[in-house]
Amino acid sequence: MDFDVIIVGAGLVGASLALALRGAGLRIAVIDTQRPRPVVDPTDWDSRVYAISPGSAEFLQTCGAWSALDADRVCRIEDMHVFGDDAVSALKFGAYDAGLRELAVIVENRELQRALGQALESAPQVEIIAPVTCTELNFTADAAQLALADGRRLQARLIVGADGADSWVRCQAAIEVETRPYQQTAVVANFALARPHRGVAAQWFLRDGVLALLPLPGARVSMVWSTAIEHAAQLLALTADELAAQVAAAAQNKFGDMSLITPAAAFPLRMQRVRRLVQPRLALIGDAAHNVHPLAGQGVNLGFRDARELAQVLAARGAQADCGDYHLLRRYERARREDIATMQFTTDTLQRLFNNDDQRLAKLRNLGLRLANRQAQLKNLLVRHAVV
Question: Are β-strands 144-148 and 153-161 bridged in parallel, bridged antiparallel, or unpaired?
Fold first, then answer.
């Protein structure tokens, strides 16, 4: 059971890396606790969605997954409206103004999982080992050795940790991680609208958190409300009609009356920084490598950029036959550090700025939104950075 690369984690980012490495001359294994075969119910909507940037969509197209998405289950964001907490200040972005077809595309988590899973199943260069649990990971000068719960022992030149924020691989490799809970919970749910959204994604920076309504096909939106733990618990305890009414009021009735179409769910929010992304025979990608606040909707796009960069580094290794060589992996780490640090700094700063009751800060942040909205070049620069 010898491989060149073993990817632990068959989620969105891990699966995309395996597919991006096709044709790189490497023998690849993907290990996960479950077989990546999600089934999409055409009558239901997944309450967890992602805003996929044009750059990530292009990457997923090269992976053979983007074209496999059901066109009836994706929705383009053509405009983005960001509102302050004074009911006046706003910052508006438009794809047309930036010379783009769209700012992002909203896709359900399970629809992406389905498309990537199907592509993985048909990839001859990739061996899927699932469902199985990893029990032990050791490193030697020449290889990484991975023991599985079913008794099999695998060996590879490179182990990639793509197993999420609570990464088992990262823990086994003793890579330090700095975790800072935001003392917030993200409440997610989907709603039907009385008024069409017209491809507009809307976000409100409220005194008690950030409310985002992302367009789904038809007159529907997916909500992400990042709010204090206590307030999140109150939202989850509401009836369907009560929750819809509260969301509509917080959204200043922008889309009229709303009705709940999927039960609300929640997950805690935190920021995580890892001490290093690589070490000999090991690389981290996706949530195993970083965690950011969802207010910018860039978490999964960061992960896809990790996968894209690591695949490019390994494919362009040239005469270096050892894909787990530390100096080779350092190219990946150096290429990703700035992007990750910039996104962590930006989202963390915005979270601190808007999750604050200081009246002076409230005036400054709302003024900042109004001033930024008048600067077309600045807005286009921000859009260009977000769509890569």
Answer: antiparallel
pLDDT tens-digit series, residues 258-285:
999 999 999 999 999 999 999 999 999 9
The CATH architecture assigned to 68-109+183-269+358-386 reads 2-Layer Sandwich (3.30)
Q: Report the CATH superfamily, name and number, of domain 2-48+113-179+271-351.
A: FAD/NAD(P)-binding domain (3.50.50.60)
What CA–CA distance (Å, rounded) separates 82 from 103? Answer: 14
Q: Which tokens in the block code for residue 22?
A: 């096709």
Is the pTM higher than 0.90? The answer reads yes
Give the model's pLDDT for residue 19: 98
pLDDT of 190 strictly over 70: yes
Instruction: Give the domain ranges of the chain.
Output: 2-48+113-179+271-351, 68-109+183-269+358-386
Residues 6+ apart with CB under 8 A from 206: 85, 227, 250, 354
203-to-29, 89, 127, 230, 296 alpha-carbon distances in Å: 40, 12, 42, 21, 10
135-156: per-residue pLDDT in tens? 999 999 999 999 999 999 999 9
